[in-house]
Design brief:
about 350 residues, Rossmann fold, 2 domains, five-stranded parallel β-sheet, 15 helices
Length: about 350
């Protein structure tokens, strides 16, 4: 299929956006001459732009897309004109957004496809596999293909080294730790983070705690406790202001450890040796994608994985409490091939 202009719409969190990467790759492989735009949160979509990926990242804010979710929508001419330039639009939208495809077609889009962003709960396949399958159904891609590393602009690792506090070299004794996530229910307990970090520091490692916009209440106390014992020169802190800065920090890191979170997905796709601690999430659906990855979770629990309602009702997260520092430490050793 020779398609001139393709628009893919996925408005979600960092991890949700990154799981589009295999689908974007497959579309690029099948539609080598096409122009592929990706619309969502622009600074997140930007991570999927480059060799083997999309051509442009567009911000859903200000696009007028929200005007196309209603039956009998009459979008302003400038909104219709914006979407009419595309031959094919593939949008991932919530259940009930049935009017979107019809309204995109009314704007002049030749082919409009709307899919659910997640596979049914009854179908235990990976979310990335579901997204790729949607592209195949839309006639834009072929199944299969080999996962490639995310494209990385040269300036990002340089910026990452600056944020980590070292120059052109590489601190091979550094481990980047991300103790938080977008959901409190998915976080490994702070006392276990403190125990593992202390163990790494006693073995001669240096650690940097990574945090995001809402992570201060977890990272701040942990940082102070570790620095009080081991010193600020051994325990650092990094707050990348943008997803591209975050990519640079992770690309400059010899090793990364995090919860089920967007930064963990990003580290794995950048082929950084990554350990992901999973609790209530199902790794069959949500595991990060990468060549150098270990997922650590507690086995033998009938309550894990569970859905979001069950997570909110759970008062004691045994699925996370039972993930031992020994098991995480051993995963780090296996990834690096040497004792950490």
């Amino acid at each position: 299929m020779a398609t001139a202009r393709i628009l893919i719409i996925r408005n979600g969190g960092l991890g949700d956006t990154l799981l589009l990467w295999p689908a974007i790759q497959a579309v690029r492989l099948s539609q080598a001459r096409a122009s592929i735009d990706l619309m969502g949160v622009k600074e997140r979509c930007q991570l999927l732009v480059g060799a083997g990926g999309a051509d442009r990242a567009l911000d859903v804010e200000g696009s007028g897309l929200h005007l196309l979710y209603h039956m009998d929508a009459q979008p302003p001419p400038e909104v219709a004109a914006r979407f009419s330039t595309y031959d094919v639009v593939v949008a991932f939208a919530a259940p009930g957004d049935y009017a979107l495809a019809e309204n995109l077609s009314a704007c002049g889009v030749t082919e409009a496809h709307v899919f659910l962003p997640l596979p049914p709960e009854s179908e235990r396949i990976h979310v990335a596999q579901h997204l790729l399958r949607c592209m195949v159904q839309a006639g834009l891609a072929e199944p299969g293909g080999q996962l490639q590393r995310l494209p990385l602009e040269e300036r990002w690792p340089r910026r990452g080294r600056q944020l980590l506090g070292y120059g052109e070299g590489r601190d091979e004794h550094l481990v980047v730790l991300a103790p938080s996530s977008g959901s409190r229910e998915k976080n490994w307990p702070p006392r276990l983070w403190r125990e593992l970090a202390g163990r790494l520091l006693e073995e001669g490692r240096r650690v940097v705690l990574l945090d995001g916009p809402a992570d201060g209440e977890i990272v701040g106390p942990l940082l102070r406790q570790l620095q009080a014992v081991h010193g600020a020169d051994r325990v650092g802190h990094c707050h990348p202001p943008t997803p591209c800065d975050l990519a640079g920090v992770l690309a400059a890191a010899p090793c990364y450890l995090g919860n089920d979170s967007g930064p963990t997905h990003l580290a794995a796709l950048l082929e950084v040796p990554t350990v992901a601690v999973f609790g209530p999430s199902d790794p069959l659906r949500w595991a990060p994608l990468g060549k150098h990855l270990e997922v650590v979770r507690a086995d033998g629990l009938s309550c894990s994985p569970c859905d979001e309602d069950e997570r909110r009702r759970c008062s004691y997260r045994q699925c996370l409490e039972d993930v031992t520092t020994d098991s995480v430490h051993q995963a780090l050793e296996r990834l690096l091939g040497v004792p950490v």
